């Protein structure tokens, strides 16, 4: 690989950054800038081996590229990471690169914070690299004919099921529900009650906290609805198909009684699955390694059940390169991103974390072939990509998704019916996005 040295000392963000630097063995630069220094914001939010693996991969890169220094800042959750990034950008001290949610692309563009990769790549090989990722992941990575994010920590929601619970309920343990109707029918058989009528095991758990709009988008996609346009300036929250999807989500608890009423926590859902509180759950493929390591029973992984069609939103984080960097920094950042998303490194990342390797050739590596032969469920999220759509992403994205989340909460808790809740959400979104038409 070709590298150039740069002379800008990497910035630090207090004790957290220093601790991260020490962990990587790269602290103690002193006042001398001897190499190309990159500050790298990384979200450590989802459980598993994310931090350990990113540390190992970065050490491997640094060992092969002594003229580059990387100062990693473990920024917390995705929300923490975008907040810290925007604060740094507005303060004139952005990082050089970061992994941030793919849906935050429009937010970063509005701040004029990120560079288009077409403006950085030069060789035909680099141009080909830009086209090497799964198209479904690129839907949240491009706009206006330019690429602003490179898929890395990407995922889709999938359905996990407890095979032992299926067997006990008289269901085929190898056959998950393929449709909404089957999910309800299976859920009724899987829901257990004690002699007093108290539920001891729910049939299904779809979290409605943390990222409620994301899992809800699984339902809207399956019902044939798209929540926002590609330009990020129009939502379709009051589409009748969206209303129907929200009514179904509410009905899972109130009508069919296969899911606990009220708000269901995102973070505790895997634990509830492990402990037999639910026989099926929807959650990210990013939990795949966690479930594999901790489920005390045989389990299966399946695509989300269909209504009109199969489908799920993509999710997770992209690499971004920030404009307020020297040309040397931008090229060094590009080189690091090219290296860490290459097939061998992408395979290591997927095997360690459960995230979906973002390019087809990663699945052809010997390591990945051995992994999926030993653990076929790893293929489910990859195969679901052919049915996937872009995760909800707009300008003023955090405000817009919060509006939808509030509407979902109102309907789930019974404060509003789905139709009026989504009508109000659409009106609020229209008021915010009218300036972006």
TrEMBL record:
Database matches in InterPro entries: Bact_solute-bd_prot1 (IPR050490), SBP (IPR006059)
Any one Pfam family match given in the protein's UniProt record, by short name: SBP_bac_8
Locations listed in the record: Periplasm
Recorded superkingdom: Bacteria
Similarity remark: Belongs to the bacterial solute-binding protein 1 family.
PANTHER family (alphabetical): ABC TRANSPORTER SUBSTRATE-BINDING PROTEIN, ARABINOSE-BINDING PROTEIN-RELATED
Protein name per its UniProtKB record: ABC transporter substrate-binding protein
């Amino acid at each position: 690989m070709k590298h150039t040295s740069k002379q800008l000392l990497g910035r630090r963000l207090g004790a957290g950054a220093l601790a991260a630097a020490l962990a990587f063995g790269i602290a103690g630069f002193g006042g001398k800038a001897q190499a190309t220094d990159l500050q790298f914001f990384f979200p450590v939010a989802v459980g598993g081996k994310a931090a350990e693996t990113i540390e190992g991969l970065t050490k491997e890169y640094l060992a092969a590229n002594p003229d580059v220094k990387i100062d990693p800042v473990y920024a917390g959750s995705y929300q923490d990471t975008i907040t810290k990034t925007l604060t740094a950008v507005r303060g004139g001290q952005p990082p050089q690169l970061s992994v941030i949610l793919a849906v935050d692309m429009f937010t970063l563009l509005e701040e004029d914070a990120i560079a288009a990769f077409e403006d950085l790549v030069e060789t035909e090989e680099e141009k080909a690299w830009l086209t090497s990722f799964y198209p479904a992941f690129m839907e949240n990575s491009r706009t206006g004919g330019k690429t602003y994010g490179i898929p890395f920590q990407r995922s889709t929601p999938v359905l996990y099921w407890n095979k032992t619970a299926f067997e006990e309920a008289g269901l085929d343990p190898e056959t998950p529900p393929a449709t909404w109707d089957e999910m309800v029918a299976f859920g009724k058989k899987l829901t257990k009650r004690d002699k007093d009528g108290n539920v001891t095991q729910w049939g299904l758990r779809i979290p409605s906290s943390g990222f409620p709009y994301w899992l809800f988008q699984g339902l809207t996609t399956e019902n044939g609805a798209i929540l926002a346009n590609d330009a990020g300036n129009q939502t379709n929250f009051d589409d009748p198909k969206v209303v129907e999807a929200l009514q179904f989500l509410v009905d899972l608890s109130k009508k069919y009684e296969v899911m606990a009423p009220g708000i269901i926590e995102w973070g505790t859902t895997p634990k509830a699955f492990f402990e037999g509180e639910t026989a099926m759950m929807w959650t990210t493929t990013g939990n795949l390694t966690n479930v594999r390591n901790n489920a005390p029973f045989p389990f299966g992984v399946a695509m989300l059940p269909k209504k009109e069609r199969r489908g799920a939103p993509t999710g997770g984080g992209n690499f971004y390169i920030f404009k307020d960097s020297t040309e040397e920094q931008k090229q060094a950042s590009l080189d690091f991103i090219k290296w860490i998303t290459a097939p061998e490194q992408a395979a290591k990342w997927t095997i360690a974390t459960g995230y979906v390797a973002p390019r087809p050739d990663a699945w052809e590596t010997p390591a990945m072939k051995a992994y999926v032969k030993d653990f076929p469920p790893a293929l489910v999220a990859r195969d679901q990509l052919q049915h996937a759509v872009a995760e909800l992403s707009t300008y003023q994205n955090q405000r817009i998704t919060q509006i939808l989340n509030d509407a979902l909460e109102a309907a789930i808790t019974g404060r509003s019916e789905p139709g009026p809740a989504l009508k109000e959400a659409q009106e609020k979104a229209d008021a915010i996005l009218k300036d972006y038409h």
